[in-house]
Write a structure and sequence with these properties.
6-stranded parallel sheet, Rossmann fold, 2 domains, 50% helix, 219 residues
């Protein structure tokens, strides 16, 4: 991603906490060269929103109920630069999102001015990290890290963003009709997505699927 020829920098916010998104939007709104073009609270909404608005930079939460930052990185089209913005400073979280394609990782203790500077820097091609987090990445790529490779979950990774959203609502106890109303799709389409989810996760029925989802903290 190269710098836009003229301001503002187009930014998309992804975080499952509305209050935090509002705070970030307010902080960036004070910057003359920043424009928040969209926001999302989950993976499917983030992927569709990012692909539709074509931001320069995505500020991306790492942990969300329906898959988190890595799932968003895998689902979006090439173009925007992603900067992880998380409460976690765990080495495994930093390494996982960088390996998935994020350009940097900062913690939520960052100030508004520092965050805006981070947006400008990643848009210009720099890698941006909160203090000490860059060391995790360097150690990982030089083979000196004690952090294990992130475990793969082939069944979960095989689901599309829409299937993940249907899975999350199923796990919350929604009926097919309620899911259809929530996602503004037909009941028939929900049934198709649910059938695909059962097949891909190798679960025999909805009760088994719900237990499977809860074990992975998808709710």
């Amino acid at each position: 991603m190269t710098l836009p020829e003229t301001p503002p920098y187009r930014v998309f916010l992804v975080d499952d906490h509305a209050v935090f998104r509002s705070g970030v939007r307010a902080e960036l709104g004070r910057e003359a060269d920043m424009e928040v073009v969209g926001e999302a609270n989950g993976v499917a909404e983030a992927v569709s929103g990012i692909n539709a608005t074509a931001p320069h930079v995505v500020l991306l939460d790492v942990h969300m109920p329906d898959g988190g930052g890595v799932a968003v990185l895998r689902g979006i089209e090439s173009g925007p630069v992603c900067l992880a913005l998380s409460v976690s400073d765990a080495a495994e979280d930093v390494i996982a999102v960088i390996r998935a394609g994020a350009r940097g990782y900062v913690t939520k203790s960052i100030s508004g001015v520092e965050l805006a500077d981070g947006v400008r820097r990643v848009a210009g091609g720099d890698a941006v990290f909160s203090p000490r987090l860059a060391g995790f990445v360097l150690d990982s790529f030089t083979g000196r890290s004690n952090v294990p490779e992130p475990q793969l979950d082939p069944e979960l990774d095989s689901l599309t963003p829409r299937e993940l959203e249907v899975l999350r609502l199923l796990a919350r106890g929604y009926t097919y009709r309620e899911i259809a109303e929530e996602l503004v799709i037909s009941v028939k389409t929900v049934e198709t997505h649910a059938s695909n989810v059962l097949r891909k996760t190798q679960q025999s029925n909805r009760n088994a699927l719900t237990r499977w989802a809860h074990r992975r903290r998808i709710d």
